Amino acid sequence: MSSPLQISRDQALRQRFEGTIAKARSHPVPGSFVDTVEKPLLPAEVLRGDRASTDRPKNRLARPPVQVKASRGGGKGFFGGIISGIGKAFGSVFKGIGKAFGSVFKGIGKAFGALIGKGVDCAVLGLAGFVERIQGLFSKGRSLTDDQKVRYRNVYGSTVDLDSVRIRRGGPLSWGASKTIGNTIFLQDDCFDANGQLNELGKNTLDHEMAHIWQYQNGGSDYIHGSIFAQAMGMVTDGDRRAAYDWRSAFNDGLAFCDLNPEQQASLIATATRLSPNGGPIEARSSITEAEAAYLNAALAEVRAGRGAP
Ligand SMILES: [Zn+2]
Questions:
Q1: What value does the CA radius of gyration of the chain take, rounded to a whole number of Å?
Q2: Euclidean distance between the first and final Cα of the chain, in Å?
Q3: What is the mean pLDDT of each run of 10 residues along the chain (310 residues)?
Q4: Do the domain assignments include residue 71?
């Protein structure tokens, strides 16, 4: 329960960041570069159809319209495409970050630096249209086991294509923190036991990362920058990125499921998964109040309806 003092502090924080959050939600999606963009480079007189200029052009600018198209596959070669994809992804990410945070907080750069240093849940590497390329590279990870499929079918119903989920162990993309990029879950080495099976940490982490899979399949890759933003906010407001994961504070604030940040949603769904692995209604117990159980059940209904993803 929050004390009156806590509530007023939260309200003050919320007012303080309201504008920023609104901006972040509306800032251009980094992944939008994958769309095809017509970019006419012809001089205006050519576009108007002036005869003199439509003759064989001497003007260097007078070249055919260029179609700028990010590659999702073929075209310029696999690695060339990747390098170009990385460049574009980072370019638009930093542009997006600049727009969203710009001059709003002086300390935000520091928060991001600290986040990247510690490893963000949804890493910077996973940003933007880079998601599709990462998936192509790592599509050979292991599939969910039959038991895991049953567990997650009970939670998500038909809103997640469980067959397309891949789990990868270790590697550069698990550095810093386990994370989900598109349909691929990158788990750190410490999630596995000596036999290569998931340990308790691994099972709990998988419950959490599966929620990001649901977000990806039901809302696209927006969850990634929403997650990083929430973690940066956690750093700024509470000095800890993990503050972003606190679904109970959202519950105490009366927020609807669709208004939770991506990490709050994932933590809530992971909690619900553990409390109801068979998919039945969650009941109050020592760790969950009656009102919290009702909140979790309402959220699960949204999840199973495919509603509320970032
Ligand atoms: Zn997460």
A1: 23
A2: 27
A3: 47 46 33 31 42 37 39 43 52 52 49 53 48 59 95 97 93 80 91 95 96 94 80 78 87 95 95 94 95 97 96
A4: no
- Rounded to whole angstroms, how far apart are CA atoms 164 and 134? 14
Confirm whether 277 is domain-assigned. Answer: yes
Question: What number of other Cβ atoms are within 10 A of residue 115's Cβ?
Answer: 21
Q: Six-digit token pair at 199?
A: 């340990």
Please give all residues whose CB falls under 5 A of ion ligand 1, grouped by chain where several chains appear: 121, 263, 266
pTM of the model as a whole: 0.61
Rounded to the nearest angstrom, the distance between the alpha carbon of 267 and the centre of ligand 1 is: 7
Distance 307 CA to ligand 1 centre (A): 18
Centre of ligand 1 from the C-alpha of residue 296, in Å: 18
Structural domain for 187, as ranges: 4-29+107-304
Joined tokens for residue 94: 């930093």
Evaluate whether residue 240 is within a structural domain. Answer: yes
Position 68 in a domain: no
Closest residue by Cα to residue 180 from 246, 125, 234: 125
Q: How many domains does the chain have?
A: 1
What percent of the residues of the chain are helix, what percent strand, and what percent coil, each to the nearest 5?
Answer: 60, 5, 35
C-alpha 121 – ligand 1 centre gap (Å)? 5
Three-state secondary structure call for residue 306: coil
* Amino acid letter, residue 152: Y
Give me the residue label for tokens 């750093």: 235
